[in-house]
Amino acid sequence: MSESTIDGNILEGVSATTLWTLHNRASEAKRSDGVIRDPWAVTLFDAISYDYLKFGNPNQSHALRAVAFDTEARRYLSAHPRAAVVALAEGLQTSFWRLARHGVADELIWYSVDLPPVMALRETLLPHDDRIVALAQSALDRSWMDRVDAEHGAFITAEGLLMYLEPADALGLIRDCAARFPGGTMMFDSIPQWFSKRTVSGKLRLSDRYLAPPMPFSMSADEGEALAGTIPGVRLARDIAYPPGRAMFKIAAWPPLDRIALYRRGRPSITLLEFG
Q: Tell me, which GO biological process terms does this entry list (predicted)?
C-alpha cells in the first residue's frame, strides 16, 4: 500500500458494505460504456486500498440504483432548488457532485449522515464544500432531524440503508420522517424477501472470502406502494423503476416483466414517498 492510499479495513461490519457499493459504482464509471459517470467514485476507489474482489466481480446494480436516485433528486431539486437534501447512511456515495454537475445543487443544503469512521473517511478523501453539513451519527439517532432546515423542502434518501435495519426500526424511521417533514419526499431501496432470508441465514456469499451481513428488512414494490395507506403522513408512494443497463440488466428492466406477479415480488425495488 502506498503512502497516498488509505487502508479500507478501518471500516468493519455493515459500514464496510459501502466499499462493496463503491467497487460496483467505480468499476462501472471506469468503463467506456458505463451506465454512470462518477469521477469522484473513481477517485475514492483508487485512494482506498482494499481487497475489493472479495465482493466478487463488479456488476451494474449499484450504479443503476444511483442513477435512479439521481433522476428523482434532480426532478425534486428542479422544483425546490433551495431544499435540504438529507443523505442517510451516505457511506461513500458521491451523489452531491453528480447533481452539482447537472446544475441542481447551487442553492441546496446537503446533510450527510453516517457513523464517525465513515464520515472521517469522507472528510479525508472528498473536497470540502460549504453546502455540505456533515453529521457523524447513526441515522437512527433522530437528533439529525433537529439540524435540518426544511423551510424550502426536504428530499431524504436512504440508499442502501433500510435493509440492514430491523423491520420495526426501518418502518419507524419512515414514520418519523413523515411526521417531521410534511411536504417533503423520501426515497429508499429495498430487497425482496427471498434475498433477505438468504442473508439472515448466512447463505449469501459474494465470494469465498466474504459473507454478506444480515439484511433483516425486506419490502416488495407493492408493499412499498401500500405505505401510502398504512403510515400516517405518507400522501403518495410510487415504485421507481431501475433504469435499463446492459445485457441481463437491460432484460431485467423490461417493463412487461413486471406484469408477472412472481417476478414483481422477487425483484429489488425503489420507493419514492411524498409526505402530506
A: methylation
Element (H, E) at 28: helix 17-29
In order of 22, 192, 227, 252, the CA distances from 214 in angstroms are 19, 13, 24, 25
Beta strand 210-211 pairing with 205-207: antiparallel
Which cell numbers hold the place of 206? 459474494
The C-alpha cell that represents 188 in the structure block: 429508499
CA distance 61 to 64: 5
Q: Which domains does the chain have, with CATH numbers?
A: 6-275 (3.40.50.150)
Please give the torsion angle defined by the CA atoms of residues 8, 213, 94 and 243, in that order, rounded to the nearest 10 degrees: 140
Nearest to 42 by CA among 61, 64, 25, 60: 25
What pLDDT tens digit does each residue of the chain (276 aa) get?
444 689 999 999 999 999 999 999 999 999 999 999 999 999 999 999 999 999 999 999 999 999 999 999 999 999 999 999 999 999 999 999 999 999 999 999 999 999 999 999 999 999 999 999 999 999 999 999 999 999 999 999 999 999 999 999 999 999 999 999 999 999 999 999 999 999 999 999 999 999 999 999 999 999 999 999 899 999 999 999 999 999 999 999 999 999 999 999 999 999 999 999
Which H or E run contains 23?
A: helix 17-29
pTM score > 0.90 for this model? yes
